[in-house]
Amino acid sequence: MMASTDSVKEFETKKFALPVDAEHKATTFSLMSVAKPHMRAFHLSWLQFFACFLSTFAAPPLIPIIRDNLNLTATDIGNAGIASVSGAAFARLVMGTACDLVGPRVASAALTLLTAPAVYLSATADSPTAFLLIRFFTGFSLATFVSTQFWMSSMFSQPVVGRANGIAAGWGNLGGGATQMIMPLVYKLILGMGATNFTAWRIAFFIPAVLQTLLAFAVLLFGQDMPDGNFQQLHKSGKKHKDNLSKVIYHGLANYRGWITALCYGYCFGVELTVDNIIAQYFFDRFNLTLHTAGIIAASFGLANIFARPGGGLVSDLLAKKFRMRGRLWGWWIIQTVGGILCILLGLMNSLSGSIAVMLVFSVFVQAACGLAFGVVPFVSRRSLGVISGMTGAGGNVGAVLTQLIFFKGSQYTTERGITYMDTSENDYYMEEWDLKEQQEGHHQASLRFADSSKSERCRRQRSAHPDESLPSCV
């Protein structure tokens, strides 16, 4: 009883810039704020992810120059594109586990610093093999997506977690569009300074490399893992249970809902990654455009993330407000289905104007579907949130690999049907991740607080088991 009273007192005396819930997660989202810890974590996470996306896709807009310098064949270019997204599939699984154990700040900064040398070494590529290996290792940095989503889910509560995840990921993904304009511009500026074609593209890679390095240090120095502090600090003070690696992984991999989200995410984000890799070259070669013009058109696809993916997260929150979890799931299914139809149409277009128009509309739906996906993920598991986020994120990369192998032009895109609705009580569902001994030791308390908050996602049709006339009806 005394421990409970102390906990209440601590909650009441803790001060934050934003209103918070029982876990000290922010219940509102203030985009223009940089207040520590919630909004500062938001801005650091998306900026770092932006830098990693910029580095990973710095090569595609310069491919017409690089292929002449390194004598790349179409097969070489395709393999390099696959390499850039395949390594991150495994890295995202590892990143999810790392976030569960050491926190998103250290995990993401460490990976960003470890992959930065590959970006610098892009300037030294002298063969198709070297080019492929550099793109492969650079692509590992895309696993920072998982730490971004984990971080946002740790900082923001149910009413706003969808938009927090959507905006952070969407603005990070902007790197895939921004690089289509930035790299040709940097290349052109370096040419203007007297460098040759084959030297200018190499120097240009130092821009994303330096940016990636600086933002990794910014996250490490100025970020905070949880509303109440960093993982190491919380473990030492006893405020956070230091979990067992094998149990975290087990409860993540054994949760079939995580595999379903991974499968569905593979066929929205996987397609987005594929288009990021090939779209500039596609317009350059098919419509005989200049490198700069093709880059601007290609950039418009990725730049739609400034509102499309955040919009998906916002739609998820709004649907949940009225229809709860079923609203989040149906919204994801509908948006992703429309995206699949548009993807088929894109592969059938023969004119420049028609291709651009369909690409723009398609970009909105495919990226919104990604935002809706991570409006669902935070509710799949409390204990193994990182593993589930990693599985889902890895599914996106696996989808990209498969898409580039058997679905390169986008005309075979198939939309998966949706996600099975969770139909147990919140307490029972999240308590299943803790055994009896762990519950007796009190390690499950954070999951119980999360379960209480998650009851707002419940539908009225469950009232026979959990009477509550204030609950909204389901669709």
Any guess at the CATH architecture? Up-down Bundle
Instruction: Flag low-confidence runs.
Output: 1-13, 407-426, 460-475
What's the overall average pLDDT, rounded?
77
Helix proportion range: over 70%
* Structural class designation: mainly alpha
* Tally of individual helices: 21
- Biggest sheet: strands, sense, closure? none
Shape: globular
Name of the CATH first level: Mainly Alpha
- What is the radius of gyration? 22 Å
CATH topology heading: Growth Hormone, Chain: A
Strand content: under 5%
Measured between the Cα atoms of the first and last residue, the distance is 42 Å
How many beta strands in the DSSP annotation? 0
Give the CATH H-level superfamily: MFS general substrate transporter like domains
Assembly state here? single chain
Tell me the series of helices and strands, N- to C-terminal: HHHHHHHHHHHHHHHHHHHHH
How would you describe this structure in keywords?
70% helix; disordered N terminus; globular; disordered C terminus; single chain; mainly alpha; Growth Hormone, Chain: A; 21 helices
Characterization of the model:
- This protein has 475 residues and is mostly helical.
- The chain has one domain (36-227, 243-445): Growth Hormone, Chain: A (Up-down Bundle), CATH 1.20.1250.
- 70% of the residues lie in helices and 0% in strands.
- It is built from 21 helices and no strands.
- The chain has helices at 2-13, 38-56, 63-70, 74-102, 104-120, 128-139, 144-155, 161-192, 197-204, 206-222, 231-237, 245-253, 256-266, 269-286, 291-303, 308-348, 352-376, 385-406, 426-431, 436-440, 445-454.
